[in-house]
């Protein structure tokens, strides 16, 4: 198994899930006492969040490029960015060194296509839902993407930053997400992409009338496959 470099901390709540899932998948697939070969670089999310809010993406990209170089120096042979939103600066990571980055949106699109679906609803941060860096990547993977209306996008975003990133899981927020999922399905969504890794702390398959695609889980499974291919 090649060594996977995790760029995490955005938030650490979801990065911890990546660590857990990668080790569980490794144990399930390889058996016995096997665990994943991992190196983790965890940034301070407070610093990244300020750069996001102020649109200083180049600076944020520089921080993650530094993380990528540190992971390469530590022996990483494959990079995994443990956040959907910061794939906006994936190019900075890809240009930082020679270690390949496994793009989360590519792994997600592949899973949706494998399920025989093409039209999906997307939940995530406002950056992910409203900007084209993520939706276009899914579209390039053969998908048609729907997003909630403006008021619902604001709610989804607020729950992520004010609750889930702080480890708070609320039943009323789950109910709100279920309502938003229902609207997306009514608009024609055949599946729902949980396009923020923290959303998996709140929503699961039981909360949707159509298949959900948990991007952190799909990313972890793709990372194991790539590391052992």
From TrEMBL:
Coiled coil: none annotated. InterPro entries: Asp/Glu/hydantoin_racemase, Asp/Glu_race, Asp_race. Keywords: Isomerase. Pfam families: Asp_Glu_race. The keyword Isomerase applies. Belongs to the aspartate/glutamate racemases family. NCBIfam families: asp_race. This is Aspartate/glutamate racemase family protein.
């Amino acid at each position: 198994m090649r060594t996977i470099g995790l760029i995490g901390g955005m938030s650490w709540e979801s990065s911890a899930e990546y660590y857990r899932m990668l080790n569980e998948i490794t144990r399930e697939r390889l058996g016995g006492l096997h665990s994943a070969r991992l190196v983790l670089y965890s940034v301070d999310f407070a610093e990244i969040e300020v750069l996001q809010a102020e649109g200083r993406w180049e600076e944020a990209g520089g921080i993650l490029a530094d993380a990528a170089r540190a992971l390469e120096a530590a022996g990483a042979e494959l990079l995994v960015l443990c956040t959907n939103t910061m794939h906006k600066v994936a190019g900075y990571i890809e240009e930082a060194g020679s270690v390949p980055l496994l793009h989360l949106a590519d792994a997600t699109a592949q899973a949706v296509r494998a399920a025989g679906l093409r039209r999906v609803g997307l939940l995530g941060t406002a950056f992910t839902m409203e900007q084209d860096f993520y939706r276009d990547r899914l579209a390039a993977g053969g998908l048609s993407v729907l997003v909630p209306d403006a008021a619902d996008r604001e709610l989804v975003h607020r729950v992520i930053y004010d609750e889930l990133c702080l480890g708070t899981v609320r039943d009323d927020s789950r109910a709100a997400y279920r309502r938003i999922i229902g609207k997306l399905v009514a608009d024609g969504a055949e599946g729902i992409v949980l396009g923020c890794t923290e959303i998996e702390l709140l929503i699961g398959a039981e909360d949707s009338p159509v298949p959900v695609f948990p991007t952190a889980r799909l990313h972890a499974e793709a990372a194991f496959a790539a590391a052992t291919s």
